[in-house]
Design goal:
There is one protein chain. The protein is α/β, with parallel strands linked by helices. It has two domains: 3-117 and 351-367, Enolase-like, N-terminal domain (Enolase-like, domain 1); 122-341, Enolase-like C-terminal domain (TIM Barrel). Helices cover 35% and strands 22% of the residues. It has helices at 60-71, 83-90, 97-115, 119-123, 142-155, 170-179, 198-203, 222-228, 244-253, 263-266, 269-281, 295-304, 319-322, 354-360, and strands at 3-21, 24-38, 41-47, 129-131, 134-136, 159-163, 184-188, 212-213, 235-237, 258-261, 286-288, 328-329, 339-341, 351-352, 361-367. A seven-stranded parallel β-sheet has the order 5-6-7-8-9-10-11. It has a four-stranded antiparallel β-sheet with strand order 3-2-1-15, with helices on both faces. Strands 4-13 form a two-stranded antiparallel ribbon. Strand 6, helix 6 and strand 7 form a beta-alpha-beta unit. Helix 1 crosses helix 3 (97-115), helix 2 (83-90) packs antiparallel against helix 3 (97-115) and helix 5 (142-155) crosses helix 6 (170-179). The radius of gyration is 20 Å and the shape is globular. The structure holds 2-succinylbenzoate (OSB) and magnesium ion.
């Protein structure tokens, strides 16, 4: 496929409600939408980078820079045989995984469309529907949290993840467990604790949590192995896992028993599949995380989460949980049984609402040979 044109758009979309985590509060999501035209098709991808280097060291500006000055020039105007060829042409760029993943996503959509198959088929997916959960931000009180969760349970979500932060942890978990003794419940600390917090972390063992996500530092693997030995609840790593090599280290050291895969964090679908396949070989379950994507990124996530070892429900919720109006048609919906349909049309399987996309675009740049 000859790559005729690549376009970047900085998008800004207002969330339906503020999303608070131990990293701060978000009112808007700003990402980069990548469009690739070539071979008579158009591919779309979402670079899930944020304006500030908090969840990840990458920022909107670093991703734009790396895409514009290094990744895009390596591909635009070139004949690309397949995804591996594109990765070979850009593989000299170290790190900057979100930038890379946005581009690989758009190229994967284009190649799948050119072959007339869905992204799920293109990636080796096997599920027609995926199990989904919802990630619930910090709320101003335990009562309010229980109220918010009750609405999500009514929507069909079968797994609830709550964010925790120092001083806003045990009381929240206690309140939720009291109201809902049997739901699949997990917590996500986004690296807010250290081994000094061992007493609080051990206290979580009482609440029959499915997992504790990323309790310790974002770049730590070793301390998590120390912590894991003192907990019954499985640890799941998110921020600490950038690639299959980290995955091997974490599993062999006993730092975690579950892996959260986000294609943006690990550099794209190809690395995500490597992690997925390694985890299969070790009997380690994985689940698909989320970055509050628009429908474009969400469509890609749903395709990837249709692979067989994504056995736990993902942070892949309905469009309306994030945005009043999504930029794709149809918007993503969750059924009463807590599942979401995997699109079957070619590529990401949803249409882009160009007027909506235009409306949320803050900056646009196009690249031609
Ligand atoms: O830690 O999983 C996280 C959103 C942005 C950045 C990091 C995280 C999250 C979420 C929301 O938890 C997941 C989603 O519903 O997309
Ligand atoms: Mg997380």
């Amino acid at each position: 496929m000859r790559i005729d044109r690549i376009e970047l758009r900085h998008t800004k979309m207002e969330l339906v409600s503020p999303f608070e985590t131990s990293l701060g509060v978000e009112l808007f999501e700003e990402h980069i939408i990548v469009r690739v035209d070539g071979g008579g098709v158009t591919g779309w991808g979402e670079c899930v980078v944020e304006p500030t280097p908090s969840y990840s060291y990458e920022t909107l500006e670093t991703a734009w820079h790396v895409l514009r000055d290094f990744l895009i020039p390596a591909l635009v105007g070139k004949e690309i045989l397949n995804i591996d060829d594109a990765l070979a042409k850009t593989g000299w760029v170290r790190g900057h995984r979100m930038a890379r993943a946005g581009l690989e996503a758009a190229l994967s959509d284009a190649f799948a469309k050119a072959q007339g198959i869905s992204l799920s088929q293109f990636l080796g997916g096997t599920r027609k529907r995926i199990n989904v959960g919802v990630s619930v931000g910090l709320q101003y009180s335990p009562d309010r949290l229980v109220e918010v969760i009750s609405e999500y349970l009514q929507d069909g979500y079968k797994r609830i993840k709550i964010k925790i932060a120092p001083g806003r942890d045990l009381a929240l978990v206690k309140a939720v467990r009291k109201a809902y003794p049997d739901i699949q419940l997990q917590v996500d600390a986004n690296s807010a604790y250290t081994l000094k917090d061992i007493d609080m972390l051990r206290a979580l063992d009482e609440f029959n949590l499915q997992l504790i996500e990323q309790p310790l530092a974002y770049d730590d693997i070793y301390d998590h192995s120390i912590l894991a030995r003192q907990l019954r609840t499985p640890i799941c790593l998110d921020e600490s896992i950038y690639n299959v090599s980290d995955t091997k280290a974490a599993i062999e050291l006993g730092s975690c028993r579950i892996i959260n895969i986000k294609p943006g964090r690990v550099g794209g679908y190809t690395e995500s599949k490597r992690i997925h396949d390694f985890c299969v070989s070790k009997n380690v379950p994985v689940w698909h995380g989320g970055m509050d994507e628009s429908g474009i990124g969400r469509a890609g996530n749903v395709g990837l989460a249709s692979l067989p070892n994504f056995v736990l429900p993902g942070d892949i919720s309905a469009s309306k949980r994030y945005y009043k109006e999504d930029i794709v048609d149809p918007p993503f919906e969750v059924d009463a049984d807590g599942t979401m349909a995997v699109p079957t049309k070619p590529g990401i399987g949803v249409d882009i609402l160009m007027n909506r996309l235009e409306h949320v675009t803050a900056r646009r740049e196009e690249f031609k040979p």
